[in-house]
Amino acid sequence: MEELRLIAMAIAVGFGAIGPGIGIGILVGKALEAIGRNPEAASKIQTNMILGIAFTEAIMIFALVVALIIRFV
Amino acid sequence: MFSISLVAEEVFKIGGMPVTNSLLTGWVGIVLLILLVAIGMRKGSLVPTGLQLIFEAIYSFFLNLCESVLGDKKSAEKAVPFITTIFLFVFVANIFTVIPGVGTIGIKKTEAHVAEAAVSAEQSLEDSEAKEANLTPLFRPASADLNMTIALALVSVIVTQIIGFKTLGIGYLKKFFNFTNPINFFVGILELISEFAKIISFSFRLFGNIFAGEVLLAVILMLVPYFVPLPFYGLEIFVSIIQAFVFAMLTLVFIKLAMTSHDGEEHAVAR
């Protein structure tokens, strides 16, 4: 049972990391593109990019929390 | 071996109230912050130098941020103490992840295992290992305790609601309970759910990031003790700044969203 729990935890984190990984990649790529086109707006774009990253990353953190719950609770 | 514990452990009691290691570190952080501000702002000279320069830079950065998000200077000056306080407190609570001694210096608690030790040979071997690992750290980053992050998220969300009621009056409730047509009704329900989802996402984002960082550092230090953990320490400093900024920024954005009513233009004309 304990081994199954470890596997479940690994699967939860592993699959949970796929989506946000792609999401953050797209987000930062587009933001850099935008900065390249309009370098003067860099500070505004950066702030919004960080906000977007925080929202995207939250999904990964939820996966992590689920994994921790599987492992410890 | 080290032990990773999801909950903060109790260190000592004050009059029956358990003081956990996270709470203790939070207090240390607050005291340090107050001391730093008191020392830095003691002179209060017109041309800032040293510590005063740093604090004034933080303040003016957040003043500009509030102004660009909220739109006018008056409400920005009202909002900036709250937002900056959130940033500074969360940052101080986070940065303890990378300070040496946090999580490694602790009190050994063995009395719980003495009673079970005599069961069998194998059992006692396990127990001696458990005794080795049963170290209660004296310090633990305050953000790595879910109680603290939920409390902070509740403060942030409740302040958002209060500001919403203050600016829109009773019309703020129209955001959540709108019976004009079925679509608006369901949008209202979604809004209501998202208010509660905010608490969860706020608290778990901060807790997850800092707790994961702590575990990451512990694992890396166990695998390779020298030089290799350095970039991870850099990453953790970056994460603690970014998470503090994100917490403050999201609070600001949610305050802005609460201040604007759903049917913005019509409302503005009607008032």
Shape of chain B: globular
Helix content of chain B: 55-70%
Backbone shape of chain A: elongated
Low-confidence stretches of chain B: 112-131, 265-271
DSSP strand tally of chain B: 4
Proportion of residues in β-strands of chain B: 5-15%
Helix/strand structural class of chain B: mainly alpha
Helices and strands of chain A, in N-to-C order?
HH
Helix content of chain A: over 70%
| CA radius of gyration of chain A | 17 Å
Oligomer type? heterodimer
Strand content of chain A: under 5%
Radius of gyration of chain B: 23 Å
Number of helices of chain A: 2
Distance between the termini of chain B: 65 Å
Distance between the termini of chain A: 14 Å
Number of strands of chain A: 0
- The sequence of SSEs of chain B as H and E is EEHHHEHHEHHHH
Biggest chain-to-chain interface with counts: A-B, 14 and 18 residues
Please give the count of helices of chain B.
Answer: 9
Strand order of the largest sheet of chain B: 1-2
Structure summarized in a few sentences:
The complex is a heterodimer of chains A (73) and B (271). Chain A has 73 residues and is mainly alpha-helical.
What does this structure look like?
The complex is a heterodimer of chains A (73) and B (271). Helix content of chain A is 92%, strand content 0%. Chain A has 73 residues and is mainly α. In chain A, helix 1 runs antiparallel to helix 2 (42-72). The model of chain A has no long low-confidence stretch (mean pLDDT 87). In chain B, the strands form two sheets. Chain B has a two-stranded antiparallel ribbon. A two-stranded antiparallel ribbon of chain B has the order 3-4. In chain B, helix 1 crosses helix 3. Chain B is globular, with a radius of gyration of 23 Å. The relative contact order of chain B is 0.13. Residues 112-131 and 265-271 of chain B have low confidence and may be disordered. The A-B interface holds A 44, 47, 50-51, 54, 57-58, 61-62, 64-65, 68, 72-73 and B 6, 65, 68, 201, 204-205, 207-209, 211-212, 242-243, 245-246, 249-250, 253.
